[in-house]
Amino acid sequence: MTTVRRLLALPEWSGAVRVLAGAAGLDEPVSAVRPLSDPAAYPPGSGGAGEVVMVTGPVEAGDWRLDALLRRVVDAGGAAVLLAAREVAYGTLRLADRLRLPLLGASADVLDLLVAARLFLAEPETDRARLVLAAHRAFDERTLAPEDVVARLGELLEAPAALLDERGQPLAGEVREPGAVRVREVVRQRVPLDDGVLLAHPALLPGAPGPSFWLVVELRGTAAGRADAVPVALSVAATAVQRWLLSHRLELERDARSRTALLGDLLRLDGEPSAQLRRRAADAGWQLTGWHVGLRIGAPPALDTVAWTAQVVRVLRSEGVDAVVVEHGDGWTGWTTFAQEPTAARVRALADTLRTANRALHGSVGAHMGVGRPHPGTSGLISTVAEAADAARLAATRPEAGFFLQVDQLGMAQLLLEWARTDTFEPAARALLAPLQDQPGDLIRTLSAYLDAESSIAETAAVLGVHRNTVAARIQRVERLLGVDLRHRDERLALHLACRTVSRPQEGFQGS
Hints:
This protein folds into four domains: 4-122, Udp-n-acetylmuramoylalanyl-d-glutamate--2,6- Diaminopimelate Ligase, Chain: A, domain 1, CATH 3.40.1390.20; 126-244, GAF domain (Beta-Lactamase, 2-Layer Sandwich), CATH 3.30.450; 269-410, Alpha-Beta Plaits, CATH 3.30.70; 431-507, Arc Repressor Mutant, subunit A (Orthogonal Bundle).
């Protein structure tokens, strides 16, 4: 059904015709348009229901015949009156408002407006077809960036347009109410607004499980009358966005393969990186020097990690974490780098920030996160990433911890038991006992014997051939140097496992 509002949305009418009065009747149906040379040429009883009377000749602002015309058009069931004038007497405007009869003022040639209206009424699909052709010309086979697609769409429809991301936030363009789109529903949407309608069309790669995007256009005021024709233009524009998504996806996958291969080469290092590897890392923007804190973000196996990498980086950066993030297995491996060794307080602050980021990621993709300890250099990067991977494996089964674990926050025994099944167990044990290595008094051997003797001072003294007071003094030094309490069974177990590992004769790691 064609209405006065729909006529006002025609390209030839839009901008050339404005509503002077009687806006309450804009949604009345229109069946025909009738030219009239002057107001007096419309005698009582003429005309028909749904007719738009278009006065082609000049009309004086205070012409009483104009008031008479308005009454006669209303009596005949007419839909509107259009004048080749922008200014009309105040009394006439009040009369049009009382009669609820749209009174329109035209700045363009009335005959041109008449032709456009009659063509549209004769074939209502004409405007839709013209819009489709114009859209295909605007969005040809070239790959256009989202900003260009949105700009061309806005110009084509003469209305605000935008491309929304998976959170409902504009990636390009701007509309007044982006939040009105239900971003979790990948369907075409038509949302009523106070003074118009919001149209949204999904734009995504077919079969892609990743985030979806929406092309949105706001049709307000008289432009809302074109709402039935606009979806075809949105569909054509969405195809242009899909072409960009495909091109962008291929680029993302190529970059992801390159990053993953570089990470694999780093993690397989046995010694210092070659000049070529350092050059590849520099080209990727990765800093190998400094102190690194590793992080591992695990995700469900079915998740498209390439598609979600940008979102992961965005979440981390929103919390102030500038980290390298690499697609790696079922999730992402990453790290953040400090120029100097970070203090314990700074590491705790980083862990708190990453915990907050993980809450957001868990809510969106079901992620879990593990965080390693600070380590220097390339070898330290490998170590902290391995620690983060172990912690993440534990975090996946810890809803009570918010699916987040940091190595320093784990019970030592628990962590060492997990590491005993990984290649990172031995370096972790060495790091745990390192404060005892160069201390006098054979502290590592004393601790190992003490734990083998089930914490018996007397039996340990007998095994070592020293006085029991000597053993007691050494154990106190061990507790002080390691910051542990050997009355706790978890800490005893952790240290027992560590001693068994580092005290193997072939490793040559003996206390002095």
